[in-house]
Design goal:
Blueprint lengths: L1 H26 L18 E7 L6 H12 L6 E7 L7 H10 L8 E4 L20 H8 L6 E10 L2 E10 L7 E9 L2 E2 L11 E2 L2 E5 L6 E2 L7 E9 L10 E9 L8 E9 L3 E2 L3
Parallel strand pairs: 1-2
Antiparallel strand pairs: 1-3, 4-5, 4-14, 5-11, 6-9, 6-10, 6-12, 7-8, 12-13
């Protein structure tokens, strides 16, 4: 009799354990997205990539022009300053982005959303002089957006972890890529020509966390792509609390005239930057 009772207990224990395991698995719900669900519309932001160097006496004038343009709409206009030929330059990156844009042939110059100019004296050029910046910026700032970005980052000591969320509501069939910049504000110049001692640089690209011309992402199905990056930023900054992230989703065309930044986003380190 004892044998039958023991066998029955074991039988009930085995199947009750199995049932609990299946129940727990079936009730598991996906973790919520920290930036929220993908919205039905996105704010279009414009990226100005400013090419400069401390050796060039005209670059402080370019900085003044950039500052004036950023003041037009502090929410919709973002900047990234890319140095060449000085202590802040990332030379392989400059060479890569210059070729990608059809050549940076003067300083200061800027690319606005990486598209060819439609107004001014440098029509069809993707890297243009100061005198053509504002009118081409104005032509882009009111455009609608087909996609958007959100960011979550965490910094422990010098170890940076970033999740980039790319949301979209319609398929994008072009060759789309994600680029992630680490930028720094309030860097004291070492030897900026035509500027007083203590001149300050802003929006300086200190590191490119993705590949130089962006990491390929597919936006042909679904409505969300998530990319995660881990990076040591040791030696990549002067003042850690002046660092920010700039992410851009962009199209790479068959030639430089078909490139385009579809949207961009900025956040401080350690921030959960939600959709907007």
């Amino acid at each position: 009799m004892k044998k039958y009772i023991l066998f029955g207990c074991l039988f009930l224990f085995f199947f009750s354990c199995k049932k609990d395991k299946n129940t727990n698995t079936g009730n598991t719900t996906p973790a919520p997205i920290p930036v929220g669900e993908v919205p039905t519309s996105f704010t279009r932001k414009v990226l100005i990539e400013n090419f400069k160097g401390e050796w060039n006496p005209n670059c402080p004038v370019g900085d003044d022009s950039l500052k004036a343009m950023l003041a037009l709409d502090t929410f919709k206009i973002l900047a990234a300053s890319i140095h060449q030929g000085d202590w802040l330059a990332i030379t392989p990156f400059f060479n890569s982005i210059s070729a990608h844009l059809g050549g940076v042939n003067g300083f200061p110059r800027a690319s606005i959303n990486r598209v060819p100019a439609t107004l001014g004296t440098q029509i069809d050029s993707t890297v243009i002089s100061i005198f053509n910046w504002r009118q081409n910026l104005n032509a882009l700032i009111s455009q609608s957006a087909t996609c958007g970005l959100a960011l979550v980052s965490k910094l422990e000591n010098d170890q940076l972890n970033v999740k980039v969320y790319v949301g979209y509501n319609d398929s994008i069939l072009e060759n789309t890529r994600l680029t992630l910049y680490l930028i720094e504000d309030n860097i004291v110049a070492q030897n900026q020509l035509n500027a007083p001692q203590g001149y300050i640089h802003h929006h300086v690209v200190r590191d490119v966390i993705t590949s130089y011309t962006g990491d390929s992402i597919s936006m042909k199905s679904g409505n969300l792509v998530v990319k995660e990056y881990t990076r040591s930023i040791t030696g990549k900054y002067s003042i850690k609390n002046q660092l920010k992230l700039v992410a851009l989703i962009h199209v790479v065309g068959v030639d430089y005239k078909e490139n385009e930044v579809l949207n961009c986003q900025i956040s401080t380190l350690g921030e959960t930057k939600k959709w907007d």
